[in-house]
Design a protein that fits this description.
Elements lengths: L2 H26 L9 E8 L2 E7 L5 E6 L5 H19 L13 H10 L2 H7 L6
Antiparallel strand pairs: 1-2, 2-3
């Protein structure tokens, strides 16, 4: 197995563990609603920290950081991601019942971790 494949497998394992933690936090609040959409830290491993977020439409989001991030940075990143998701989900020309595909959403997700976007929006670096 190549190093790239090992890293991909480790990333998937972290994501699944974080999503399980997000589901557990949502259940702890009684099912589908939480007092806040931001769920805070959901999973910590030797190589990073994952934070969770749940939308009103029950979409769950996880952001992974290689090191601890400030609460302000995480919340701003989730605001950025939630806005991108809402724009993609509300595409008037999207296929009904189909998978949400949006080149702009993909680009915004990729840009989320870039230091250039963080500098542009004044949210710090890293992550």
């Amino acid at each position: 197995m190549t190093d790239d494949a090992r890293e991909r497998r480790a990333s998937l394992a972290r994501a699944h563990a974080a999503l399980d933690a997000v589901d557990a936090k949502i259940r702890a609040f009684g099912g589908t609603t939480t007092p806040s959409r931001y769920l805070g830290e959901c999973h910590r491993a030797h190589d990073g920290v994952c934070y969770g977020y749940a939308t009103r439409s029950r979409a769950r989001m996880v952001l992974a950081y290689e090191e601890d991030a400030s609460e302000e940075t995480v919340r701003k990143d989730f605001d950025y991601l939630a806005t991108a998701y809402a724009e993609a989900a509300c595409d008037a020309f999207g296929e009904i019942g189909g998978r949400t595909t949006s080149e702009r959403f993909r680009e915004r997700c990729e840009a989320l971790g870039s230091d250039a976007r963080r500098r542009e929006e004044g949210t710090g670096g890293g992550g």
